[in-house]
Amino acid sequence: MLRQKILKRCREDIYAWLNHENGQVAIYDAVNPTASGRRSLAKEFAKHDVQTLFLESYVNDDRILRENARNVKISSPDFHGMDADEAAQLYLQRIEMKIPVFETMNENELNYVKMINAGQAFFYNNVSFNYLSHRIVFYLTNLHIKSRTTFFVRAGTAGGEDTFKGDAPLSEEGRAYALKMTETLLKHREQERQSAIEEGGADIPLRPLTVWTSTRLRTTETAHYFQEKGFKIRQRSQMSQINPGVCEKLSERAIRHLYPDEVEKHELDPYHHRYPRAESYHDLAVRLEPIILELEREQNDLLIIAHESVLRVLYAYLMHCSTMDIPKLKFPRDEIIEIIPAAYQNEAKRIHIPGLDPKMVPGSPEDIKIPVPGPPSGNLSPIPGLSSPAEPAENQRPPEKVINLAKEMVADKVADED
């Protein structure tokens, strides 16, 4: 009885969010094991003008079940503080208890997707009712359960003037940066492998590493030393930096003088606002959607070399950041960000690149440097204090937050033009 009351309150929250708060997709995560229960649920949602798409994950492979129980479910708050083996066993017992009442989806009148053994096969029924249903299905078919690590790094500095429309190559400083960054990442991966061997007692091979860049010279040349060592490099035109429009090469002071109304709009909503002939971060996120789908499909470890604006959007996707936090995320050029997948919240770490000036002058074009007032949004922000991987004591750095206050983001490096 209590469970039914809680589920009813959850559905009421869904109706309020979808119909009155501009919500688009809600995930109602309940077991719904019987055909009659699913039909009843679909009718109730329809009365509130809500379309339903049921997702069934059907697993009859004991190996997948055991791995899922150990690697995923023991991270659930339900099993907090429990021994890993005990938690896994309890989860498997819960599954056994559901089997007698479980009815696999075969209701012809319902919209559903059935995944067999974590994506080995898919079955669809009536999933063509709107655009979002197609995108959800496409997203699901790109998912996999293999663990892989993603690294984010800035491109090196350019030589000469590198405008948004231009395409300057790396400077000497940029090439030196590319070499140090390559050496640092490869050394880190080997150290991680050695640690895994010490823990597991077996010779564990390194997972393959794939490198993604945009088509801009700064990013492709930053990947040069990886290519020399035989790593696979893939260029993606969608990963070009955000278009600054009329604000390109203007200082903050000049932008405030020339476009005071636009500055006011930008400060109110830095994610959705776009300057004349420019892109907003929302526009950039839409442009990066195919990249995000490819990212989910990629099974190798992945290094993404890109402009800071692109890294902000991709990092926010992986770390579940609020859209209002995206324009404030900061990626120093003397650091590599490592994102390690986990069931309920990915983990992010900093890897320091030694021998670089953290205040290295970035290559232009940089993002529009309008300060964004207000603190981070809170629970949907990145994990507080990205921790550094284990380093010798003399080289350790204190944990730092990725999100910085607005005044730290203002870097008026271009001479005023007014």
From TrEMBL:
<keyword id="KW-0418">Kinase</keyword>
<dbReference type="Pfam" id="PF00300">
    <property type="entry name" value="His_Phos_1"/>
</dbReference>
<dbReference type="InterPro" id="IPR027417">
    <property type="entry name" value="P-loop_NTPase"/>
</dbReference>
<feature type="region of interest" description="Disordered">
    <location>
        <begin position="362"/>
        <end position="399"/>
    </location>
</feature>
<dbReference type="Pfam" id="PF01591">
    <property type="entry name" value="6PF2K"/>
</dbReference>
<dbReference type="GO" id="GO:0005524">
    <property type="term" value="F:ATP binding"/>
</dbReference>
<dbReference type="GO" id="GO:0003873">
    <property type="term" value="F:6-phosphofructo-2-kinase activity"/>
</dbReference>
<dbReference type="GO" id="GO:0004331">
    <property type="term" value="F:fructose-2,6-bisphosphate 2-phosphatase activity"/>
</dbReference>
<keyword id="KW-0547">Nucleotide-binding</keyword>
<dbReference type="GO" id="GO:0005829">
    <property type="term" value="C:cytosol"/>
</dbReference>
<keyword id="KW-0808">Transferase</keyword>
<dbReference type="InterPro" id="IPR029033">
    <property type="entry name" value="His_PPase_superfam"/>
</dbReference>
<keyword id="KW-0067">ATP-binding</keyword>
<dbReference type="GO" id="GO:0006003">
    <property type="term" value="P:fructose 2,6-bisphosphate metabolic process"/>
</dbReference>
<dbReference type="InterPro" id="IPR003094">
    <property type="entry name" value="6Pfruct_kin"/>
</dbReference>
<protein>
    <submittedName>
        <fullName>Putative 6-phosphofructo-2-kinase fructose-6-bisphosphate 2-phosphatase protein</fullName>
    </submittedName>
</protein>
<dbReference type="InterPro" id="IPR013078">
    <property type="entry name" value="His_Pase_superF_clade-1"/>
</dbReference>
<dbReference type="GO" id="GO:0006000">
    <property type="term" value="P:fructose metabolic process"/>
</dbReference>
<dbReference type="InterPro" id="IPR013079">
    <property type="entry name" value="6Phosfructo_kin"/>
</dbReference>
<feature type="domain" description="6-phosphofructo-2-kinase">
    <location>
        <begin position="3"/>
        <end position="146"/>
    </location>
</feature>
